[in-house]
Specification:
This is Molybdopterin converting factor. This protein is an alpha+beta fold. The chain contains seven helices and 17 strands. The protein has a five-stranded mixed beta sheet with strand order 2-1-7-4-5, covered by helices on one side.
Length: 237
């Protein structure tokens, strides 16, 4: 059975491609078995493959999940982002987007304002210069865009169900300089206490589950953040 596997971040750099054509002879093929076969075929990337999760049809897949010839398969490194030309991908309702262009906080806030909501809040995550004694000059983000949008939409639905809140999220990919925004989360609710809770929940869940990766570019070089962790340590299934 022939399958195509999408690769991201440091794993794509190690293997040297953002996609991988793979011929699997074992049928049925499970997600766990695929990782074993890939580790054996690419020993230089075995540790990264072992630390990653398989996504099937844009959902995180347990090891016993079956992969078919029609499955959309991706190997997801631990989550923490483009190419030439403008990237702007959004959900059908326009509330969740991934782009390589500067983010617009005012536009995102306007998308969640409601005449019956007395509180609104923007969280803006920006590139900071110092982390301890390490000086960052820029960050670079990569993303599995279709799955990332789906996970952002899931976060928004959970925020709506738990806090009766409106939510919109934009995430930047590509090079993000100092003080520039990499992510903006807009939330509005009837009252301020739930607005704080909902916005905090959204950024924490985003960092746990959305397949976006961050490369730190600094004076001594560059590295993918969290590349030495297991994906299962950072992603809640």
């Amino acid at each position: 059975m022939h399958i195509t596997i999408r690769l991201f971040a440091g794993l794509a750099e190690t293997i040297g491609s953002s996609s991988l054509s793979f011929q699997a002879t074992e049928i049925p093929l499970t997600a766990g078995k695929l990782k074993e076969l890939l580790s054996a075929s690419y020993p230089n990337a075995a540790s990264q493959i072992g630390a990653s999760l398989i996504a099937i049809d844009r959902e995180y897949a347990p090891d016993d999940s079956i992969i078919t010839a029609s499955s959309e398969v991706a190997l997801i490194p631990p989550v923490s982002g483009g190419e030439n030309g403008t990237i702007y991908e959004t959900t059908t309702d326009g509330l969740y987007s991934i782009t390589d262009q500067p983010l617009n906080a005012e536009k995102l806030l306007d998308a969640v304002l409601d005449v019956n909501h007395g509180a609104s809040l923007l969280f803006i995550g920006t590139t900071r210069e110092m982390t301890g004694e390490q000086r960052t000059t820029a960050l670079h983000y990569d993303a599995y865009i279709p799955m990332a949008l789906s996970k952002l939409e899931e976060i928004g639905k959970e925020v709506k169900n738990r806090w009766n809140a409106n939510c919109a999220i934009s995430h930047r990919i590509g090079l993000v300089g100092l003080k520039e925004a990499s992510v903006i989360i807009a939330v509005s609710t009837p009252h301020r206490d739930t607005c704080y809770e909902a916005n905090r929940f959204a950024i924490e869940r985003l960092k746990q589950t959305v397949p976006v990766w961050k490369k730190d570019i600094n004076e001594s070089g560059q590295h993918w953040v969290n590349s030495d962790q297991k994906a299962s340590d950072t992603i809640h299934k």
